[in-house]
């Protein structure tokens, strides 16, 4: 990123971050509600940054600044869902000389790092009383730059440096570097969901995609305990902590499914075992969602990826749920999911070894088309209500957040990224079994 030139006195200006809003600009009369939610999430992301910060709201844009390094502001802001772009910028008075001088300094610094660069100018005049129209000022500013710096190449379609000018009433913003933001809707603007979080690639990406549609997510992880070790819990904790960097901290609920899986096997599930235990998972998750105020379940299912994710088997699983089951990745290919996992920071955790409860007691060949009649026959041999009550009675609740030592159930600040390969103790930041809170 090109160095930001220091503004010359006596300008009342300084470095800031320009945040362009995503699709909330389409929300009409309700836009202010989405903007308030977006700013609440931004404030949460800035918590603990180590200095004072300020947020200024404009039309479809938010300006962020403070007495902290600009790089820290950028890193936090780039994680806030709802912003389409994150741009380091300079605030300057809304006068032609001030804007022009700043743009020339910015391009001079960029050219010093990359000789021979091309440039273009884009201006947006929010202050309609400004002395030039947007297109007039673009031409004017481009000419002044070439006068000051010589014949820099102009490329209007794909410039090496795009100088963007936002002209407001009292102050304007000049930027020349753009980072892609997550886009989407502010987390929490669409309600709450409970994500069935495994240790693989798929479910963390599904959670992230649900967050981008405005859902605030809690997580539930099923283990094969007591027949499997705690490795999958370490992974689930690390994945939830990474995902919580994109939202106010979500809780992780850990449920030991091993005994219940054995009961299904003894009841004669056979080739239905995988689908039957998936139905048991969504039953337990539906009951848990009622206690956590979640309005939907989210899974990482991708149509046809494995035997349990055929259309017939997904329909059989849905029949056991009492809430909508959302599948953000239903049409995705595996490589698309892996690429997304790498971009959001969960891939390096998902590749760590663990013992997957879904493989516990799985038959050599699972059915591709589970019949509801056969499933109901197997389930009637169990007292499902009693089984689900037992699963929830022993649930363990964790708060993957800012530190491994302290739990803050109400915290909105995202968690720190786990060190690759370092397991997170399952005992930290937890509640006692059975104390499911809302």
General description of the model:
The protein is an alpha/beta fold and 438 residues long. The chain has 13 helices and 15 strands. Strands 1, 2, 3, 4, 5, 6, 7 and 8 form an eight-stranded mixed beta sheet that branches. Strand 2 and strand 3 form a beta hairpin. Helix 8 (273-292) crosses helix 9 (311-319) and helix 8 packs across helix 13. The chain starts with 13 loop residues before the first strand and ends in a 7-residue tail after the last strand. Residues 6-11 and 402-438 have low confidence and may be disordered.
Which terms summarize this structure?
single chain; 438 residues; alpha/beta; 8-stranded mixed β-sheet; 7-stranded mixed β-sheet; 15 strands; 35% helix; 18% strand; elongated
Largest β sheet strand count, sense and barrel closure: 8 strands, mixed
Question: What is the chain-wise order of helices and strands?
Answer: EHEEHEHEHEEEEHEHEHHEHEHHHHEE
* Shape, per Cα inertia axes: elongated
Helix content: 25-40%
Strand content: 15-25%
Rg, Å, rounded = 26 Å
Tell me, rounded to a whole number, the average pLDDT.
Answer: 88
Structural classification: alpha/beta
Q: What is the tally of helical segments?
A: 13
Distance between the termini: 44 Å
Structure summary, number of beta strands = 15
Note the quaternary state here.
single chain
Low-confidence parts, pLDDT < 50 over ≥5 residues? Answer: 6-11, 402-438
